[in-house]
Amino acid sequence: MAPTPRITLLVASLHVLFYLLLSMRVMLHRKAHRIGVGTGGDEVMTRRVRVHANFAEYVPLALLMLALLELAGTAAAVVWTCGLVLLLARLAHAIGLGGSAGYSAGRFGGTLLTLAVLLAMALLGLWRFLAQAAL
Question: Are 57 and 93 in contact (CB under 8 A)?
Answer without folding.
Answer: no
